[in-house]
Amino acid sequence: MEFPKDLRYTKEHEWVRVEGNIVTVGITDYAQDSLGDVVYLELPNDGTGVTKDETFGVVESVKAVSDLYSPISGTVIEINDALVDSPEVINDDPYGDAWMLKVEMNNSSEIKELLTADEYRKYVEEEK
Amino acid sequence: MISKNEKLKVTPLYDIHKGLNARMVSFAGWEMPVQYTGVIDEHLVVRKTCGLFDVSHMGEIEVSGPNALEAVQSITTNDASLLKNGQVQYTLLCYPSGGAVDDVTLYKFSDTRYMFCVNASNTEKDFKWIKENIKNLADVKDMSSYFGQIAIQGPLSQEVLQNTCNLDLSLIRYYHFQQGNVAGVDAMVSRTGYTGEDGFEIYTQWDNTVKVWEGLSEAGTRFGIKPIGLGARDTLRLEMGFPLYGNELNENITPLEAGLHKFVKLDKPYFIGKNILEKQAKEGLNKRLVGLEMIESGIPRSHYKIFARDRAVGEITSGTMSPSLSKAIGMGYVETQFSSIDTKLSVEIRNKMVMARVIKTPFYKRNMTTKVAN
A61: which chain B residues are within 8 Å (Cβ-Cβ)? Predict the structure, then answer.
């Protein structure tokens, strides 16, 4: 199971990569493994507002439906259209090609509330 | 996930599943493998080569005695008098209301000995129901802890099983069984299954189940055999439109509403529930089970509402992304007037109406070109 050091994480198993005021959002290796084969993804449109801890989309495996929770508040500036067409990439490359959104943050101090890789790894190990 | 204070039963193959790194879940009071490598991969293995299922959680209930046939006939919708020794029949147990107690397979050993194979979730309920309703007409024994059960399913099943079985499998026809030897132990080999593929269900003594599993795994290695979890078992049966008790069948649904007319013999003099089923057959059904394919993007799931224009006319009972067909499919009950093939309906998915169409089941037909997901 991978926990890249340069990312921040949520207890809902999303990751964010911070580049200035823009964050990229996806779901973690642990999340994709728990879900199993991903077959469906629903994302918001460009320009949609997202709020920290509120749902921004849905991911479905063969068996189950899971909400996606936004790690931060802001405005969606780009979505990964290719991923909506090929959601199985989430299982293959959760931290790379399976990025979901780029969001322009409203309040960059929210980043500090997210877990570090070590904190998230510990959280996942306890949850198992 | 399994909560720590849940006391679950385990099958004789529990350690094998753990050794294979299966993901274990709680199912009908049992700790069972839901997947080994992945649902889609396992599903496609069964469609293309063959797969091995631990179904030891299923219940087996024996009915025996000089009046065994009469006893069985009184509680089943199908006609057990049509069975020859060594033959199997799909049949249903109904309440006086016509609602289903369970859907089961019935094995005939002899005029004086029959056996039901029942859903794991219903074993205790069925045993009690059968005993209460057969009264003193025959002996009823719960054999569930005596039998382990393994299913081998897929087009190469016969070839694999023949390597480790003393019976000439080409002589066992669909829905027939024989007693023989598998992997060096006594076993009952039944050409039945829940996947729509050719295959066998093998009953053996509880403590011999591991031997049968290991014998089949070894015999199947060069054919690409793989262990298959409950996840793929569910998608395989759903592609065939087979009902699952608890989803498409329950105490408030009759076999006729579920479209199981073939297995309800109203010309039998008597069986529990017959009056209501006869009435339904004569007066028509209020609701019917249909197969749906999604026209717009979205996956139907159990309990989602089905709409005709702006009125709710039914509910989804099972749905998934079909691994063989790579499209979203589902089954559900709708008011009869909306049940004909090609009717356009909507499924409410997260407060959005998503277009769907009633189609014929099975969704998947054997020898269809299998679309392989990359």
Answer: 39
